[in-house]
Design brief:
single chain; 107 residues; mainly alpha; two-stranded antiparallel sheet; 4 helices; 50% helix; H-NS_C_dom; minor groove of adenine-thymine-rich DNA binding; H-NS_C_dom_sf; transcription cis-regulatory region binding
Length: 107
């Protein structure tokens, strides 16, 4: 099935290219599925599970995102605190510019 690309116009070439890319992606996915099946079969033949070899699947072990105790307090407004994580608050940067040190703002 040879296609003579010299006789195709611009739209026909674009159509051919997009169809070829779709088919290429399909072939790649088929190959990945076959390879995955081979790997699982090899692991099973050795008497192990996938988790034994590669650990738990991604997304299962989530980090705890609990609250963190504040490390710094705004001397001008004690209600404003910062844990030291993430972007520095404006009041913290302003205090540093005014000559204070981080340890001066520590709780």
């Amino acid at each position: 099935m040879a296609v003579d690309i010299k006789n195709l116009n611009h739209n026909q070439l674009n159509d051919l290219i997009s169809k070829a890319q779709v088919r290429q992606n399909e072939l790649r996915k088929e190959k990945v599925v076959k390879l995955r099946e081979k790997v699982h079969a090899m692991i099973k033949a050795e008497g192990y599970s996938f988790e034994d070899i590669f650990g738990s699947p991604r997304g299962k072990a989530k980090r705890s995102t609990g609250t963190v105790a504040p490390k710094y307090r705004n001397p001008a407004n004690p209600a404003q605190t910062w844990s030291g994580r993430g972007k520095r608050p404006h009041w913290f940067n302003d205090a540093l510019k005014a000559g204070k040190k981080e340890k001066d703002l520590a709780i």
